[in-house]
Known about the structure:
Blueprint: H1 3-10, H2 12-30, H3 32-59, H4 66-78, H5 82-106, H6 108-115, E1 120-124, E2 130-134, E3 143-146, E4 156-159, E5 163-166, H7 168-171, E6 177-179, E7 184-185, E8 190-191, E9 196-200, H8 208-221, H9 225-232, H10 234-252, H11 255-262, H12 268-287, E10 290-292, H13 295-301, E11 306-310, H14 311-315, E12 321-327, H15 333-344, H16 352-361, E13 369-375, E14 379-384, E15 387-392, H17 394-401, E16 414-421, E17 424-432, H18 439-448, E18 453-457, H19 462-472, E19 476-478, H20 483-492, E20 498-502, H21 508-513, E21 516-520, H22 526-531, E22 534-536, H23 542-577, H24 583-601
Parallel strand pairs: 11-18, 11-20, 18-19, 20-21, 21-22
Antiparallel strand pairs: 1-2, 1-3, 3-9, 4-7, 4-9, 5-6, 5-8, 10-22, 12-17, 13-14, 14-15, 15-16, 16-17
Amino acid sequence: xxxxxxxxxxxxxxxxxxxxxxxxxxxxxxxxxxxxxxxxxxxxxxxxxxxxxxxxxxxxxxxxxxxxxxxxxxxxxxxxxxxxxxxxxxxxxxxxxxxxxxxxxxxxxxxxxxxxxxxxxxxxxxxxxxxxxxxxxxxxxxxxxxxxxxxxxxxxxxxxxxxxxxxxxxxxxxxxxxxxxxxxxxxxxxxxxxxxxxxxxxxxxxxxxxxxxxxxxxxxxxxxxxxxxxxxxxxxxxxxxxxxxxxxxxxxxxxxxxxxxxxxxxxxxxxxxxxxxxxxxxxxxxxxxxxxxxxxxxxxxxxxxxxxxxxxxxxxxxxxxxxxxxxxxxxxxxxxxxxxxxxxxxxxxxxxxxxxxxxxxxxxxxxxxxxxxxxxxxxxxxxxxxxxxxxxxxxxxxxxxxxxxxxxxxxxxxxxxxxxxxxxxxxxxxxxxxxxxxxxxxxxxxxxxxxxxxxxxxxxxxxxxxxxxxxxxxxxxxxxxxxxxxxxxxxxxxxxxxxxxxxxxxxxxxxxxxxxxxxxxxxxxxxxxxxxxxxxxxxxxxxxxxxxxxxxxxxxxxxxxxxxxxxxxxxxxxxxxxxxxxxxxxxxxxxxxxxxxxxxxxxxxxxxxxxxxxxxxxxxxxxxxxxxxxxxx
Length: 633
């Protein structure tokens, strides 16, 4: 099917209107008397079809703007201006085509997201033979081969060599992301320049990309309150147009004035502008790694006045890391880290991996350990390079080495991993859940966007929470909260709407309770993402402020487009009431007004001039070693 045939199939009434227009031109040259019957008759038929649908809508309680167009067609035919009637008919029949174009332009990023959805997978059999199967037929445990430039069909773990993936369609991250063997790889990621082997861990229906597609499709199908508000403008706008047309008829004594007023009372800015703006805004958000689940949520985000944030994993990175290395005099800092990592490398304790990561970040070779003994909730002992090493709490090191550990008091929110070597205390590694580097700038941007109140809700101890709050500028801290306490706190906040930002399973109830729940979905749990109204696909707190800015821009553009269309239409109606604009000219001007309103709505796909610049995605800093004297240990 050619593009022309497809267009004719989708918009038959537009094609019919153009054919009637061509026939009318021929008849004007050959049989002028027949022009009125053919063109006028066709216009009345189309008006009758719309009137029938309009009555059905009214019976269902939906009052729209078609009454203006229908009345304009009937009145222009009645006064003999059939060409003006045909132009109004073209506006009516061409409205769907114009809306489809605008929606496609606004949907550009979302359409690209859906087009990249994987459909097939290369399954590697036991004998190494490749079999192409539908992505829905992939089962947990299947080994998949992903060729360069292909998308990973389902979520899995990387096997074999290190591989780089383009995750921009999932997270908005523009640079390739390198994954090591054993690391999770998300469906929809595109293999960069090499063949990758991925072991499926879930089926397609439960994979990340499919969930994103479901979220985006649901968002695109939603109808925002402001769009319904535009529909409600229909009744007063229609009344104003009819009254103005009636007054012009009464004062002039000519029914032509009534027709001239109505043909410039365009409904399209109200019918199309707001939906196009919202689709464009949600598409722009998706491009930036933010999935907004509905147009109503986007409208709520534009009015946010209070932001509540979880601490761990939201304002902080959510996992401990070595912040500083403090060796006792006579011990090299690299040796301290190397001994600790060797003893901890096979420990399941949450702090063990942070010690090993510190050694890797310094480029140290971690030696093997033998005679490893772990004491629950205390520490571990091992033999490393022929030396006896103990790692853990100060009390455990004292007990094993028989020496007294002298150490300076730790600031709030820090833990110490002490190390003893051959019967003496060798130093400590200070571990902390690092505050995100863009946490403070993000909160400043939110205040700039009109947020008046920022509150931290956390289950952590109050000293730790106050330390983080002081560092980033939060003055309302609620610490030691259980999930139910967080819900009560959000419900009790007075300055609304309230947006809650969180990332864990325990945040799911409070995300659902807030006016707008934002889930940090990149590293958060599925429960949080499902409860959230907005999902941040990239592990970047700055995207929260970007989402609010996009929402405000979208609502502002939608309202501007609606009122721009109304003002232009009312202005043309007033001018037409004085007989300055002939009906056929006025009908043509309608198309220009429609085009101006729709192009104005499409501005939502671009950032505004006054929109705050997004905060950069933060990068984990490398731990440092401060100069330490024996006195501070």
